[in-house]
Amino acid sequence: MTDANQQGAAAPQQQAIETMQVEERRFPPTAAFAAQANAQPGIYARDFDELWATEAGRIDWFEPWTTLYEWEPPHAKWYLGGTLNVCFNCVDRHVEAGRGEKIAFHWEGEPADELVPISYVDLQRRVVVFANALRKLGVKKGTAVAIYMGMVPELPVAMLACTRLGAPHTVVFGGFSADALSDRLVDMGCEVLITQDEARRRGTTVGLKVIVDEALEAAPGVRAVVVAQRTHGPVAMTPGRDVTWDAACAGLSDDPASCPCEPMDAEDLLFLMYTSGTTAKPKGIVHTTGGYLVGAATTHHYVFDHKPETDVYWCAADIGWITGHSYIVYGPLANGATSVLYEGTPDFPDRDRWWEIVERYGVTILYTAPTAIRSHMKWGAEHAAKHDLSSLRLLGSVGEPINPEAWIWYREHIGGGRCPIVDTWWQTETGMILITPLPGLTTTKPGSATKPFPGVDVAVLDEAGEEVGPGGGGYLVLRRPWPGITRGIFGDPERFRDVYWSRFPGLYFAGDGARIDEDGDYWLLGRVDDVMNVAGHRLSTIEIESALVSHPLVAEAAVAARADALTGQAIVAFVTLRGTAEGSLAMMEELRNHVAHHISPIAKPANIVFTPELPKTRSGKIMRRLLRDVAENRPLGDTTTLADPAVVGELQERAAGENAGEE
Length: 663
Ligand code: WT7
Description:
Blueprint: H1 5-10, H2 31-36, H3 48-55, E1 67-72, E2 75-80, E3 83-84, H4 86-99, E4 103-108, E5 115-119, H5 120-136, E6 145-148, H6 154-165, E7 169-171, H7 178-188, E8 192-196, E9 198-201, E10 204-207, H8 209-217, E11 224-228, E12 242-244, H9 245-249, E13 264-265, E14 269-275, E15 283-288, H10 290-303, E16 313-315, H11 322-334, E17 339-342, H12 353-361, E18 365-368, H13 370-379, H14 382-385, E19 394-397, H15 404-414, E20 421-423, E21 458-461, E22 473-478, E23 488-489, H16 493-501, E24 508-516, E25 522-527, E26 532-534, E27 537-539, H17 541-549, E28 554-564, E29 568-577, H18 585-598, E30 607-610, H19 624-631, H20 646-662
Parallel strand pairs: 4-17, 6-7, 6-8, 7-14, 8-11, 11-12, 16-18, 18-19, 19-20, 29-30
Antiparallel strand pairs: 1-2, 3-13, 4-5, 9-10, 14-15, 15-23, 21-22, 22-24, 24-25, 26-27, 28-29
Helix pairs in contact: 4-5, 4-6, 4-11, 5-6, 7-8, 10-11, 13-15, 19-20
Bound molecules: 5'-O-[(S)-butoxy(hydroxy)phosphoryl]adenosine.
């Protein structure tokens, strides 16, 4: 970031969110990368229909589709008339093509001596046996199945077995509570639940089956529970309802002919992924079969420059989120990838665990989230330096805007300065990456997700629905459908219209702010609900946070606004320092001046609260809504989705202390 103040003054009038951050570093692709890249010049000029018709050829269809898409906002349908099976595309066809011995997953347990290579033929056998077990439990096309597991091999096996039978699934992240689980079971009408006895976590175990038992008291529709034995710990089994994975599979065939892949309509329900909304009731985001699979596979191929013969790909997300569905399971397997699947946390037993894994398998492509990158920054680069990371050739980021300094740190300390970084913007609802660099083509800028994926039509609008010119900030919308677009909120078409289609009629409103710069590159500004209004200026959180993170002693920062008699709202920053640095009044002044200098005096935080941890959701996003409550000294709203509820209590105490000191 450089001299930003002038830019603020020069920004256009017409904008819904003011943007002030300027980032001048540029990273053009190398000639060597460009020459071998999957994305070649010309891809952006491809005709929309040609693109999605051709890319559909990545998938094997039982019956060819006849109509590419139908679009009557908010309803999209893709590949009408086509039939296919997801499990066939992800597993069987690779075995049939003679690639059965290729590794699908290098599974690694949290205990570092548990390393299990799973080839495509192994995966097929496991899936077939388990699909036969599900069939015996009465699961057939259309039966709703829930999966509540940690990152064990049985998790993708269970998902694929469901898709083989045509049974829609919902995977509930293994960190969710009994209430969150039962809400989802009831909403989807699940009849069968697949879980495990206990999950491994940081050297100890966490009971999942006990949570299931509690959840099922409120979800009487679940008639059968399959329990994989990860730890063989003692768990209660309810006779007539619960069965272990092994017992359910005993004596069943692993011959693919014993359990053929069910032909599914392109628009049949594939899965629901629940995502939290502004009300307590989670939204069951609907994804269907054909468009979703084409979208996931196509973006995985181009965005990650994936070469099935040589790459070792690792998406370090949890399968319980959409990232894991699209870019651990369905996209990579459809493309015949060899992936890493890791059960544990990045810092167990030590903070170099990830880098040990990269070295062990020769990982070439790594996809993770800014929150993880900032944790590694906080811990220090020495952990990565202990390992040979020279196999890496491409890095990816998803989940939040990435602060430019975190981007640079990732590039230098993990990518050795040689790997392109793809900062990929998308959502549970979009199913697939929509704004992203294409490696080999795009000149990247730290903090920018750069360009819409080919065929994706994005715009940034002001309050009145007019396009904001270059440099201005506003609301991100999509004007044209894409194959992976959600088909709705399960059972609630009105809410679907309300949430996504009512702000700008006929357009999909993502809920995010964004800015387009002079080169046509997109900068995501965070959720519009988080925008602050300071002395009449509408400011996004991310720019101020990134200015703070650009200070050499800051690892993470989050800002929120509190009411202020003079300016309407005043900015409160919550800052985590790197390593052993300590917060002080002098440090606070230094950081306030740093923000004033790097962005604008308008953006100067009124107060800074130093904290060892920020409140985050279980998927790693900073919860600014709670920080607003803390900043306002209000009772906290819903804290059930927090990863670590203790963090915010401590923060309240610190904030109270600081405010007292200020008065
Ligand atoms: C929201 C969607 C999509 C997989 C993970 C999250 C934010 C996501 C980026 C990015 C800036 C990003 C947006 C979006 N987001 N990726 N590269 N740059 N913001 O899925 O939980 O549905 O969250 O995450 O705010 O709307 P999700």
